[in-house]
Design a protein that fits this description.
Distance between the termini: 13 Å
CATH superfamily of the largest domain: Type I PLP-dependent aspartate aminotransferase-like (Major domain)
Radius of gyration: 21 Å
Order of helices and strands: HHEHEHEEEEEEEHHHHEEHEH
Largest sheet: 7 strands, mixed
CATH class of the largest domain: Alpha Beta
Structural class: alpha/beta
CATH topology of the largest domain: Aspartate Aminotransferase, domain 2
Strand order of the largest sheet: 1-9-8-7-4-2-3
Bound molecules: pyridoxal-5'-phosphate
Number of helices: 10
Helix content: 25-40%
Shape: globular
CATH architecture of the largest domain: 3-Layer(aba) Sandwich
Number of strands: 12
Strand content: 5-15%
Length: 373
């Protein structure tokens, strides 16, 4: 039973969406989609209208990330989860090394472990709330990193561990916020429904020339690849501003809109500043609170985009989440499988830092009321 607590109007954020994915979509982008819908939704993805949107996504990401010549933006249907399967067929030559520090990084490692045509992957784990470090190894042809582990709120720097071996980075909840040096990765891939505030069902991968070479050499080797997961087919189609099969047109539109808006507002520097402000508000509040504390103890590993906050045993996180939800403040629950008494709050750039300040005041109010009851 969730106790009935009504938040006063000054403790209601202007927008109540704080989920870590799908995350808040910019209402301006939704209005633009509605305005464009008649000539766009329900039209062919092989014709100029939709291909123009894919072209904007591809060139916009080149600008946003300052990608050097020879880097290409590849995209396909299925999200980051489908990209793991595609990578097992089309990017890992023989042996991959995975840094596992949460749910998502663990899933890619499990894909590689299950693939009968690959050697057993090297898996380096650390306790939830921290991240491990890679171990350079001559036998490794692909290092699988995760820029931000959305399940635990841990962020790690993107750095090339070794001269040999592709560096393939799951950037799903960091891309669109955290700057990164393209020289430090070969593939930087993401789903757009998190930091990019779009919809799901799509993967996007920024690929270096070495990654493009690897896709080509595996395809030429004759290894069987399911066509839907074939990165060589995805690359061919991306070069024509298309996807191999039908994409969600709304997802593409919202992503293109978000990238354009970011470029107008100051690019990744603008986005990062928003997320820094929001996450600082939460971590400083939790550190000062007598019933809350940041789950990630090392401040250097704390995520800019997904703040995980442990609550004292006397304050039940699910009850707090339920009261917030009843007041229209959505999706502040912790990651279920982590099994902690925890709140998790997204600090993506679409989320107003002032709303984050209101949220923490609202949490304090709820906890006070619960204690009084
Ligand atoms: C959400 C998430 C995924 C999975 O994305 P899907 O679009 O559901 O496939 C993978 N990796 C990270 C880091 C995520 O946050």
């Amino acid at each position: 039973m969730i106790p009935q607590i009504t938040l006063p109007p000054d403790l209601l954020p202007r927008d109540g969406r704080f989920g870590s994915g799908p995350s808040k979509v910019d209402p301006i982008a939704v209005a633009a989609l509605a305005a464009a819908a008649d000539g766009y939704l329900g039209t062919s993805h092989r014709k100029a209208g939709v291909r123009g949107v894919v072209g904007r996504i591809r060139s916009g990401l080149v600008s946003l990330y300052g990608l050097p010549d020879g880097y290409e933006v590849v995209l396909g249907v299925g999200g980051a989860t489908a990209f793991w399967d595609a990578a097992a067929f089309g990017l890992i030559e023989h042996t991959s090394q995975h840094l596992v520090f949460g749910e998502f990084s663990g899933k890619f490692a499990a894909v590689a472990a299950g693939a009968p045509h690959l050697a057993d992957p090297q898996v380096i784990e650390s306790a939830p709330g921290s991240h491990p470090l890679p171990r350079p190894d001559e036998a490794v042809d692909l290092y699988a990193l995760t820029h931000n582990e959305t399940s635990t709120g841990v962020m790690m720097p993107v750095r090339r561990p070794a001269a040999r071996g592709l560096v393939v980075v799951d950037a799903t909840s960091a891309a669109g916020v955290a700057p990164v040096d393209p020289g430090e990765f070969d593939v930087y891939y993401f789903s757009p429904q998190k930091a990019f505030g779009s919809e799901g069902g799509l993967w996007v991968a920024l690929c270096s020339p070495a990654a493009i070479d690897r896709i080509g050499s595996i395809a030429e080797s004759g290894r069987w690849r399911p066509p839907f997961l074939d990165l060589a087919l995805a690359l061919d189609n991306s070069r024509k501003d298309q996807t191999y099969n039908t994409p969600a047109l709304a997802t593409l539109f919202l992503l293109a809109h978000q990238i354009d808006a970011m470029l107008e507002r100051g690019g990744l520097a603008w986005a990062q500043e928003r997320s820094v402000r929001s996450s600082r508000t939460i971590y400083e509040w939790a550190e000062a609170s007598e019933y809350a504390e940041p789950f990630v103890t090392d401040p250097a590993m704390r995520s800019l985009t997904v703040a995980t906050i442990d609550l004292a045993a006397a304050v039940d996180a699910d009850t707090v989440e339920g009261v917030l939800r009843a007041n229209g403040i959505l999706d502040t629950f912790g990651y279920r499988k982590l099994g902690r008494n925890q709140l998790r709050v997204a600090c993506f750039p679409n989320i107003d830092p002032d709303d984050i300040a209101t949220l923490v005041a609202a949490i304090d109010h709820v906890v006070e009321e619960l204690r009084r009851a």
